[in-house]
Design a protein that fits this description.
Helices cover 30% and strands 21% of the residues. It is of the alpha/beta class. Bound molecules: iron/sulfur cluster and magnesium ion.
């Protein structure tokens, strides 16, 4: 089986804004990778390049073994079924004039197949049930549903074509805190049952603890660390990953949101003019001279890596959570 997703040296510049600057990432069939970073890190742009909502400036995107980087809309059509996306805000991503049944069935039509009404209803009902909605919801409009129900509709739509890869871009962060966990659990259950691969984009490392096989950490358009979930949670190597973990250790999302990331006091620098050398150096408690002049290379750690001058070839190095700030 081909890899669900291969991204090689992806670059996406919007004019002078270097939103994505050389990202490489592979997701094997049936695996879940969480792409984690603060808002403005470029992680959503990676997702948008993968589903070709935008055409990348440079680099390669392969889905299920097919290079889709520069395919036209028409050329993309036969590959549409292989990848779907769930957006952050279901209120904005669902057409308010369409019935839920039409929305869920729409990807079948977009893939170039005409679906007769009776077949459509027959296909939609089990999709709705699969995401915990009753079949009669098919005859309602999105505005008649709650935010959590609408996101379930988005998920049903994304999965109706049985994609090999699902892009989930902050799928719960626009929802009421009270329903976030249930939607996250639904995604995890569906992934286990169906076995699609998933790129789970989130700003919240703690949200991926039980969902992701692998984690990729993004900072200012670049990946700073990659690794298995177990390794990243047990032994984060990059100072930024360590700071993210120190900022989000609580399971309660309400308390988490109120909590200030102590080690990440300053705002993310602008992607218009990223710092020289290591892009994290303006916020890194361990930064030293070389960090301003030399781009850190990616030190391999198992199947992953960390890009920091202080990380040793065996993956060890200082930890900002215990280091003495001098
Ligand atoms: Fe910090 Fe320097 Fe490592 Fe960058 S290279 S993370 S600034 S110590
Ligand atoms: Mg985003």
């Amino acid at each position: 089986q081909p890899n669900a997703l291969e991204i090689e040296d992806l670059v996406m510049h919007f004019g002078p804004v270097r939103a994505v600057d050389g990202v490489s990432l592979t997701i094997a069939a049936g695996r879940v990778t969480a792409l984690v970073g603060e808002s403005g890190s470029g992680k959503s742009t990676v997702g948008r390049c993968v589903v070709r909502l935008v055409e990348p400036t440079a680099g390669v995107v392969r889905i299920a073994g097919t290079d889709v980087t520069h395919l036209s809309r028409r050329q993309l059509r036969p590959h549409r079924d292989a990848v779907s996306i769930v957006f952050q805000d279901p209120a904005a991503s669902l057409d308010p004039r369409m019935l839920v049944g039409e929305i869920v069935a729409e990807p079948l039509r977009l893939a170039g197949r005409r679906v007769p009404r009776r077949e459509r209803e027959a296909r939609v009902a089990p999709q709705l049930e699969r995401v915990g909605l009753r079949a009669e919801v098919a005859r309602r409009y999105p505005h008649e549903l709650s935010g959590g129900q609408r996101q379930r509709v988005s998920i049903a739509r994304a999965l109706v074509s049985e994609p090999m890869l699902l892009i989930a871009d902050e799928p719960t962060s626009a929802l009421d805190v009270s329903v976030q966990a249930s939607v996250l659990n639904l995604l995890a259950d569906l992934q286990r049952d169906i076995g699609f691969a998933c790129l789970f984009i989130t700003h919240d490392l703690s949200a991926v603890e039980y969902l992701a096989d692998d984690i990729a950490v993004m900072y200012l358009g670049q990946l700073v660390e990659k690794g298995s979930r177990e390794r990243i949670f047990a032994r984060p190597a990059h100072p930024y990953t360590q700071a993210l973990l120190a900022a989000a250790p609580v399971a309660d999302p309400v308390r988490q949101r109120q909590r200030q990331p102590v080690l990440l006091g300053d705002d993310l620098p602008s992607a218009l003019d990223p710092p020289s050398g290591c892009r994290f150096r303006t916020r890194c408690p361990l930064a030293f001279d070389r960090c301003a002049t030399e781009v850190p290379r990616q030190v391999p750690i198992g199947d992953g890596m960390a890009a920091c001058h202080l990380v040793q070839p065996d993956g060890t190095g200082p930890d900002v959570r215990t280091a003495d700030p001098s």
